[in-house]
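Data availability (excerpt). All sequences and predicted token strings are deposited with the supplementary files. A representative entry, DUF4097 family beta strand repeat-containing protein, is shown inline so that the format can be inspected without opening the archive.
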Amino acid sequence: MKRSILLTVFLCFGIVVIAQKRNGESPYRTESFSSNAIKNLKVETSGGAIQVKGGQSRSAVEMYVTANSWGDRKTQAEIQQILDEYYDVDIRSQGGTLTATARRKNIKWSNKTSLNISFIVYSSSQVDADVRTSGGSLNLQDIAGTVTGRTSGGSITVKNLSKNIDLTTSGGQITAEDLDGLVKLNTSGGSLSLLNLSGTVSARTSGGSISATNINGDFNTETSGGSIHLKEIDGNLNARTSGGQITADLKATHDFVKLHTSGGSIRLKMPETKNAQLDLKGDKVHISELHNFSGTVKKDRVKGSLGNGNLLVEASTSGGSVDVRM
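Structure token line:
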């Protein structure tokens, strides 16, 4: 009996060790480069994840390779044979560009010849990065240059990026923290979680909720299939959803606040203002006491001006109430 238990424990431990190795505990290949020469990163793989770690004192690429089929334990020699026959792998530095790409050759392949090829790239923060994968996630951090990222099969996680940022996924959520500049975030199949963004921010999803905290600047956000929750917003705001509620807590306003939903209520909390153009519509409309207001106040509509009407405040829903507190 004890023997059986010990054997079971040993086998389980062996499986865990193998799984750890298959999950990329050790790089399959590592290449190092001169940090001063690298100004651009071009990273692409058709079947794995990409991670870029900026702010480093070195420039290097680690490549991780595993079989795509679960339980398929290939030897290093078998993996190398598949790489040689079915993939074009290019890792090099030329003309200030560090390239790390893994593409399937245009020949017939099967699950037995399909590999998961992932990259971890280390570089200084002073680089521009273009990263693309059709079968994995993106994780980028500490980059001060222009960043472009595309994945059709995974999530995107980014932190401490600045300048121009353009990220798109067709199959996962986006988590973004500490971004500054012209920011474009798009997903067709997941939620958005945003924290400490500044500049001009556009964030859209077709299939999830949106959560954002501490956004400074112009903020345009939209979802077709979820709710929107916003906190500590400072700037122009345009938020729209076709399938959920909107809650927005503003710490400062600039020129306009626009909130629209077809399938839920709207709750807006904003600093008191003496100058605003109000246009509020819903099944029921509630608003704080208005002073020096010129316009119409009805059960389902508030429309008119406070003072000179410099600030535009729009909130409309066809499936819930509107509550505005100033």
